[in-house]
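Good morning C.,

I know you're traveling, so I'll keep this short. The sequence:
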Amino acid sequence: MKRLPFPLAGPRRRLLVSTRTLMRLGAILCAFWALGGCAFQPFAGPLLPQGAQNDGMTVHDDGSVVYQLDRFEVTLRPVTDDELNRNFAAASVGETSSTNAYTFGDTQFPGLDSTRQRFTVFHAAVKNYSYPKVRVDPVRTVLVAGNGRKYRSLSLAQMQNYYRAYAIGYRGNEYSRLRERLDLLRRTMLTDDVVFSGQESEGYLVFPILHDDVTDLRLVLEDVVIRFDYLGEPSESLKLAYAFDRQTGRLYADGSRVVTHDPEDR
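The tokens, ready to paste straight into the viewer:
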């Protein structure tokens, strides 16, 4: 009879048995938890502008908030994944092969909710009909949640690093999809280009996905330059804060929802 080179005996055997016992006990507890109707998945509704904004700001029916100083305007609006998929319809099909750089496209996920959010996205528009030139720096933009969490905006370089992990090598289908995603980002993300008098600029601001416990937040533009000196250096700038809120709650296995925070209750 052939002996095992390392027979399981003593402490090692007791450790193996205890590990298996814990795994079985954990599976039984999970089953009771699910059958008892206690299993839930957090859900969050779309971001909506708060009614109370800072001076000079107006809330519009389309969900945008407009800051206006004479004939200079900076407009911000939260954008849902559904809207982004409609805006880039051709890039939003093919499930895991979709090339919409802002969403997961039409990919279906397992769980109580088959959708997943990839990023937090805002559409920004700048209109300059008052100053010789202005500049909004998207890198100096931050989301500040009411519970203290902060989310810095993602630059084009950071988005490139995020998607390069999906490309294996520098050829083939995955690399081709990488190039399509990066091309879409270059064309549509907000840049820090100067906006001269009589010009307009627009693009997307991208942030990491929000945590489940985030309800109200402020989007802060930390560096909006409206005047430059004779050397072309900024001489006057603004710091703008836009207020938003969203509904949060719990989604249960039977399809029922329990709202734990509702902006309308404020």
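Safe travels,
E.
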